[in-house]
Amino acid sequence: MAFAVSSKIIFFLFLFLFVLSATAQRYVTSGSSITANKTNSAWESSSGEFAFGFRQIIPGGYLLAIWFNRIPERTIVWSANRDNLVQEGSKVQLADGRFDLRDPRGQQMWAAPVSLDRVAYEPCLTLSFENPTDTLLPTQRLDRGVVLVSSFSETNYSKGRFLFNLQNDGNLVSATRNFPMDGPSFVYWSTQTNGSGSQLIFNQSGYIFLAAENGTVLDFVSQSEALSSQLYQRAILEYDGVLRHYVYPKSANSSGGREMAWSTVEFIPVNICASMADAKLGFGACGLNSVCSWGSDNIPQCKCPPGYSIIDLNDRMSGCKPNFVAQNCDEGALETDHFSFIDMPNTHWPYAAYGQFSPIPEDLCREYCLNDCFCNIAVYRDGYCWKLQHPLINGRTGPREEGLGLTKAMIKVRNNNATAYSSVFKKCKSSPLIIIGSVFLGSSMFLLSSLLLYFFCFNRQKSKSLQPYQDLPGLNIRRFSFKELQVATNGFKEELGRGACSTVYKGILKNDNIEAVIAVKKLHKMATEGEQEFKAEVNSISSTNHKNLVQLLGYCEEGQNWVLVYEFMSNGSLAKLLFENSRPNWYKRIQIAFATARGICYLHEECKNQIIHCDIKPQNVLLDDSFTAKISDFGLAKLLKPDQSKTTTGIRGTKGYVAPEWFKNMPITVKVDVYSFGILLLELICCRRNYEPEVEVENEMILADFAYDCYKEGTMHLLVADDDEALGDKRFDKFVMIAIWCIQEEPTLRPTMKRVMQLMEGSVEVPIPPDPTSFITSV
Predict the structure, then answer these.
(1) Which residue intervals define the domain Protein kinase in the entry (predicted)?
(2) Which alpha helices (DSSP H) does 632-723 contain, by range?
């Protein structure tokens, strides 16, 4: 798609500036071009202070930009394709009175008309383009209706969360962006010059001010002493929502004692945390469930409440998530003994409250929150009590003078040794919804350790004396007797599947005249692999089930009879659907891809302790009667301790889906599951196995290699042959690119599953993937 740009955008600046040769300058003439590659070729301005060209932002992804060219930082001040990086080999050309940016396949990515064949303007004097990105430079003017949009982060130049603009009514404002839409959400700073503001001016002396139509100064944005012409200057709306005026010495002699680096001379607002105090919508200055405080370095500090952690370590404004299982809301299961409060003084989320009480003592405020499963935090001040629930909006912590004195937030957290509520095996509905599968997710490590001690350290003969219907406290599973499972499976008669260590049978469980279909997994190599598999599956239990994970219903351990009981999945495995039946439609395949990604993301991001599945493949993705995908078979799963992000272990998994690091004696992280998901995603897209030795063309034998070749050569339609549904969906190319990112040989290049979900959902643009076999050092 071509992205046409108004002639106003053509900032007459360097739209075609000079290229400096070794001995003399020459004009950029019609027909001149620059190609995106690692040499970072560029056109320089006549002074050499600015350059225009491609900058590599991520491996294989380039930004067409303008930057300060004589300082080591090479600070970018404008870009053409901030939301749509181009890949290596893309080219920008000046021809036929326009600048034209095209990717290697010739698709137009951006264009801008030029009124002259050759332009000899000095950028630092004539940088008056009317569609800036996030930066203003001296002599630049901001007219009504023109908007600065912050970048998403320090390293991601795509449009972010904040806006700065002179509105059509003459009011100069900073506002949160209704992300990912473009409109403003909440104005947190304003000159309040409705009807009078005409133009924001950044003059050569370094003053930034709002002027009326007759030239009268209405308000100063930056009014420091006149700055020397020996300083570079810029004003930028940074990714944290603060507009900062920076200077940089042009030489050591002109630094005047300044460090040779960008330094701040003015910024607005003076405290963005306080400025956001009245925002009733949005993510605020720090993201949902977080708190903002103004730092001594004049940068907003984003923190998580006790018991919470940041969602994305690479984005301090991503918000916070609880590290514990929420309070159970089932009748009679409030778990009030399992929760307590951690005080957080001088803190409040004023617009997250759904209940208020007064006058009451603090102890009663705590009690009201404790007895309410929806209450996540109680806030108390001067006899007033507020109950808050997720998501918590625009949290702030600060001193008394900011209005937060004597305000106490009481954070409700699960006690370290408390487990999630466990109900007895509940009556099953008569529908065949109940399905085959795999394991998951019981509670705290304390009880898991106790359970394992029980299984493996006590004399097994003691198990025979236990009540066959006794449930294990703290786990959402039931203990069955072996005889009961023999009856349910009619003597283990109907086999559903078989593995190296186990066989799965279909069974019917009767409970108060209600029948439920179950899948019974009987382990049969108890001395070695089977015992390890049983331990792994039990260890993988956490406190909350997920709709995209097959639910473990119970277990049996009597002597050498070790059995796991799951819900039954009526439509079998994804492998059967993809490789044995006729091709499922594109929509169904996409839904399965999303469901599988959500399940893996849950294991990696939302469990109290991360779980690495280690064996993601189509055979372990099962489908219920409505073809909802659920991940199964946690026999190879690896449970990480709370302080672990990686582990070492022997090779696990299935050939073709095993990440390369397994074979390199490298520590194993959750990225091994990301790799396996990438292979599975390609199989879903293409409806073929990852390895097919009988194909007619040899280079199509390995799907991962074939997919990248097709992507690189612009022939991705070959991946799906006559699948018009897939080819007609604009997501097709994107999903192939996501899969290529997932199968990068270097683990650090692979996205997290959370990022994979964002890429699939479209909330984040998919960058250009590099060759999976390359070893570039950053993502």
Answers:
(1) 490-776
(2) 671-686, 703-713
Of these residues, 615, 624, 673, 723, which one is catalytic?
A: 615
Phi, psi of 575 (to 5 degrees): -60, -40
Please count the residues of the chain: 779
Question: What are 23's two structure tokens?
Answer: 């001995």
Q: Is 182 a catalytic residue?
A: no
Same domain, 563 and 590: no
The reported pTM is 0.55
- Same domain, yes or no: 661 and 749: yes
For 406, counting Cβ atoms within 10 Å of its Cβ (0-12 exposed, 13-18 middle, 19+ buried), the class is exposed
Q: Over range 588-593, report the average pLDDT.
A: 92
- Do both 1 and 106 map to the same domain? yes
Beta strand 197-202 with 141-143 is: antiparallel
62 shares a domain with 89: yes
- CATH number for 580: 1.10.510.10
Give the model's confidence band at 332: pLDDT under 50 very low, under 70 low, under 90 confident, else very high: low
Decide if 393 is inside a domain: no
* Total domains, the chain: 3
Q: What is the CATH number of the domain that holds 525?
A: 3.30.200.20
Q: What is the mean pLDDT of residues 727-753?
A: 92
Residue 289 pLDDT level (bands cut at 50, 70, 90): very high
DSSP string, 30-94: TT-EEE-STT--EEEPTTSSEEEEEEEEETTEEEEEEEESSSTT--EEEES-TTS-EETT-EEEE
- The Cα–Cα gap between 10 and 166 comes to 20
Domain hosting residue 504, numbered range: 445-567
Kindly tell me the sign of the dihedral angle through the C-alpha atoms of 567, 570, 574, 575: positive
What average pLDDT does range 23-39 have in this prediction? 72
Q: How confident is the model at residue 173 (pLDDT cuts 50, 70, 90)?
A: very high
Domain boundary among the residues 543, 567, 591 is at 567
Would you state the pLDDT for residue 47? 81
Cβ–Cβ < 8 Å for 635, 642: no
